[in-house]
Amino acid sequence: MHLHPPPDSILFLGHFHPLLVHLPIGMITALAAMEIAARFARFKNAAASAGLILALAAPLAVLTAACGWLLSLAGGYDEDLLAWHKWLGTGTALAAVMTGLLFWRGNVAAYRTSLFGTVILVTAAGHLGGSLTHGSNYLTEYAPAPLKKLFGLPSAAPGAGPVVAPADWRRQPVFAGVIGPIFKNKCTACHGPEKSKGGLRLDSYAAMMKGGEDGLVVSPGNDAQSPLLQRPLLPVDADDHMPPVGKPQLTAGELAVLKWWIAAGAPETNSLASLQPPPEILAALAAR
Ligand code: HEC
């Protein structure tokens, strides 16, 4: 699907979503904690400012959800995850407003129920929001091995590059062993299963070969005609530069490897050894 990017003004407001979102989350969870604390004699006044907190949190939740809708127009997110996140986020905003109204009407029991309902919604919405931005394995990627086992998670950190001994990557298929791991570290957070910015995925050879919204990104044997290399080679402040400013950049060694690989015909399964890279490429790979 080719999405036309929405106007800058929409994206400008949309980009406030990740900033604003922390305010209602913090206020709502803090208020719930205060209400629990207020049940103990020692903290009986803990929730005295509930009205003020709600008067801030409810409008902020609505504003945050509105900016989130604008941000979603930018596209490039996993559609199912995005749909869930949108509705849970909208639900959170509505629940926050309802909590405020119930408090204001002095309906204490209903107010408390609604407050804790809002906490559940905001937790679910926040979790999905985190998965959308960072990938669903972000939280657990570097968890200690026993913890991963406990929750049935894959044991190797997927972002940690090839888990093969240096002697072995020369015999691995070049894409899986050398090129894929570079993308995994620097590109697939935006060009992967959860987000495919510019319609491009770099998490497999086949997906890479399909290209993005602007067409093919690799022209085997012709590195000058391959946006996959040319975009990272642009000056960092150029609009089309990849990865975008502020994100981890490709190193000179990685750029050299990518250039060599495309010039060699961008093969998938040939082993590195069989492609006989020149010494400077081997040195760049060994330096990883
Ligand atoms: C922080 C997010 C992010 C990261 C990381 C990132 N990109 Fe992108 N990329 C984008 C966005 C957004 C677009 C679409 C806008 C554009 O074309 O500039 C895009 C578009 C592209 C395109 C053009 C696709 C098309 O057909 O329109 C290429 C090629 C590309 N990226 C390569 C890369 C490479 C290679 C890396 C890793 C070295 C990378 N990107 C890392 C966000 C990212």
List keywords for this structure.
mainly alpha; 57% helix; binds heme C
Structure notes:
The structure is a single chain. By secondary structure, the protein is mainly alpha-helical. It has two domains: 8-134; 165-286, no CATH class. It has helices spanning 8-14, 17-20, 22-37, 50-72, 79-104, 108-134, 145-150, 166-169, 174-186, 205-210, 227-233, 252-263, 272-275, 279-286. Bound molecules: heme C. The site of heme C has 23 residues, from α11. Residues 186-187, 189-191, 197-198, 200, 211-214, 217, 227-228, 231-232, 240, 242-244, 247, 250 line the site of heme C.
Overview in brief:
This protein has 288 residues and is mainly α. Helix content is 57%, strand content 0%.
Structural class: mainly alpha
Helix coverage percent:
55-70%
Number of strands: 0
Strand proportion, as a percent range, falls in under 5%
- How many alpha or pi helices? 14
Layout: helices, strands, pairs:
Blueprint: H1 8-14, H2 17-20, H3 22-37, H4 50-72, H5 79-104, H6 108-134, H7 145-150, H8 166-169, H9 174-186, H10 205-210, H11 227-233, H12 252-263, H13 272-275, H14 279-286
Helix pairs in contact: 1-4, 3-4, 3-6, 4-5, 5-6
